[in-house]
């Protein structure tokens, strides 16, 4: 029997426990966790993501600050804004929404965020600490996938996990996390990408497929071994005149053909997506409590 992993339900239950913890923190006389988001320009998807992050802060009792900058901001000015947040003891976590305009080097920006406030987990120190198995902020989407595997008690030890896509934000950290000696780890991991030969055969050997390549409905039943666990991290806007917004969100997995043969699958929407924001909130709470650094 195939089972749909209900990311929305898991996210709601985790949000409730985070909100409770924030209430207790505030009741004990501490200030609420404070997340700062920097948004440069007005990319439509980024606007939506940041608005959702701010909304989640309000729902969970966090303080939030949105710093908006014109796309013409210089790199030096943006770096100064980051440094100002680093130096503000009332601000716990900082995210700089990506993508940034072409004249700004995103790596320089990420490296300027103090690792102790890098709740996106994009700073090389946090990535390095994660790779070494040291306490670190783990980026939101991979953490969300781990939390879903944990919630559904999906056995990972000794399994072959094929990650499709080597992005810095999802594929690469996912591959590192799945091989760790950890309850949601101990997999034999294959990290595949656009230059992988025989991708279909590689995926057919997977007990767990994590699709994060950004190509709508690319992973069809032909890629999936019967009984495999299929995690769909894809989220691509596809034009759809029948929708009020004018677009539909598509995952990387062809749900219709894959669902009948897999053991577990995350749908799009309501799969991994809702977990991402919860992970960010969890990291911000950890930052406020000073748990990692
Ligand atoms: N752009 C797309 N996803 C993300 C994310 O998780 N964090 C940030 N800062 N930018 C993004």
Description of the structure:
The protein has 293 residues and is α/β, with parallel strands linked by helices. It has 2 domains: 30-120, 3-Layer(aba) Sandwich (Rossmann fold), CATH 3.40.50; 140-274, NAD(P)-binding Rossmann-like Domain (Rossmann fold). It has helices at 7-27, 44-60, 75-86, 106-112, 124-132, 140-151, 171-179, 199-204, 255-258, 273-289; strands spanning 3-4, 34-40, 63-69, 93-96, 160-164, 188-192, 208-211, 229-232, 236-239, 247-250, 264-265. 42% of the residues are buried. The model has no long low-confidence stretch (mean pLDDT 97). It is built from 10 helices and 11 strands. Helix content is 39%, strand content 16%. Guanine (GUN) binds at residues 95-98, 120, 140, 169. Belongs to the tetrahydrofolate dehydrogenase/cyclohydrolase family. Keywords: Amino-acid biosynthesis, Histidine biosynthesis, Hydrolase, Methionine biosynthesis, Multifunctional enzyme, NADP, One-carbon metabolism, Oxidoreductase, Purine biosynthesis. Pathway: One-carbon metabolism; tetrahydrofolate interconversion. Its EC number is 1.5.1.5, 3.5.4.9. Residues 139-289 form the Tetrahydrofolate dehydrogenase/cyclohydrolase NAD(P)-binding domain.
